[in-house]
Amino acid sequence: MYIYETLTEAVSDLGKRGYEYDFTLAQDCIECKSLDLQLMPEEFEIEEFYRFEGMTDPDDSAVIYAISSPVGNLKGVIIDAYGAYAENVSPELLDKLKISHEPPFNE
């Protein structure tokens, strides 16, 4: 397990460890715009995740997911604010991201 002080530090280290692609959440999948690729929940795994709390403002909280996929043998990251995805994604994708509600690593 890695411990990071900042989100920027986590992104940098994960990139050095091969998590090179940036993914974003869509309604029923994750997307990598640079590859013009969409992955359904069954096509990727969450390898690691780290949560960060805003020092003065709880709205500054974020989570970073390190994901891998056998589709194209890809590794990348998803960065999202806590719960921001909850109203905008399918139940299947939300279920995949439930790991973020487990006890956090970086609080």
Question: Your description of this structure?
Answer:
This protein is of the alpha+beta class and 107 residues long. It has helices spanning 7-16, 91-96; strands at 21-25, 30-32, 37-39, 45-52, 62-69, 74-81. Strands 3-2-1-6-5-4 form a six-stranded mixed beta sheet, covered by helices on one side. Residues 103-107 have low confidence and may be disordered.
Describe the structure in brief.
With 107 residues, the chain is of the alpha+beta class. It contains 2 helices and 6 strands; from the N terminus they run αββββββα.
Rg, rounded, reads 13 Å
Number of domains: 1
Q: What is the general shape?
A: globular
Quaternary status of these chains?
Answer: single chain
Secondary-structure element pattern, one letter each: HEEEEEEH
Query: From the helix content, strand content and strand pairing, which structural class follows?
Result: alpha+beta
**Percentage of β-strand residues:** 25-35%
Estimate the mean pLDDT confidence. Answer: 83
Query: Main sheet: which strands, in order across?
Result: 3-2-1-6-5-4
Q: Percent range for helical residues? A: 10-25%
First and last CA, distance: 14 Å
The number of helical runs is 2
Task: Describe the main β-sheet briefly.
Answer: 6 strands, mixed
Number of E-state strands:
6
Low-confidence regions: 103-107
